[in-house]
From TrEMBL:
UniProt keyword terms in alphabetical order: Phosphoprotein, Two-component regulatory system
The protein's name: Response regulator receiver domain-containing protein
Keyword Ligase tagged: no
Pfam families given in the database record: Response_reg
InterPro entries, A to Z: CheY-like_superfamily, Sig_transdc_resp-reg_receiver
UniProt cross-references to SMART domains, sorted A to Z: REC
Gene source species: Pontibacter akesuensis
Gene Ontology BP annotations: phosphorelay signal transduction system
Record keyword Magnesium present: no
Positions where 4-aspartylphosphate occurs in the chain: 55
Length: 127
């Protein structure tokens, strides 16, 4: 069996984080977590991450700023990590905003867990 993929979940809500983690662990993903933008940057610099679920409203550094920082990273294995935005405030952003920041995909809250799994697989299947 192939080495399991590592997903970083950037989410400040423990309930959403734990539910998302359980769902993805059932799909054999290895899960890392970050409760704020500072932790996101530390995690991507110290671990091999295959995709990021990025809540846009996390403290310290929001998801859009984290995404821009990751995209500007000098190491391609970091700057090219697929990033999936997760937000309950999608009305504040357009797909153009997401694309400009470097976000690969988007999931609305409340999360549809089937769509979550499908979206994560879409961005990790050929890695």
């Amino acid at each position: 069996m192939a080495e399991s993929m590592t997903i970083l979940i950037a989410e400040d809500s423990s309930v959403i984080l734990n539910l998302t983690k359980k769902i993805l662990e059932l799909q054999n993903y290895k899960i890392l977590t970050a409760k704020n933008g500072g932790e996101v940057i530390k995690q991507v610099e110290s671990n091999k991450i295959d995709a990021i679920l990025m809540d846009l409203n996390i403290p310290v550094k929001n998801g859009m700023d984290c995404t821009k920082e990751i995209r500007a990273h000098e190491k391609p294995e970091i700057s090219q990590i697929p990033i999936i935005a997760v937000t309950g405030n999608a009305n504040n952003y357009s797909m153009e905003d997401f694309k400009a920041a470097g976000i690969n995909d988007y999931l609305p809250k409340p999360l549809d867990f089937d769509l979550l799994v499908q979206t994560v697989k879409k961005h990790t299947i050929n890695k």
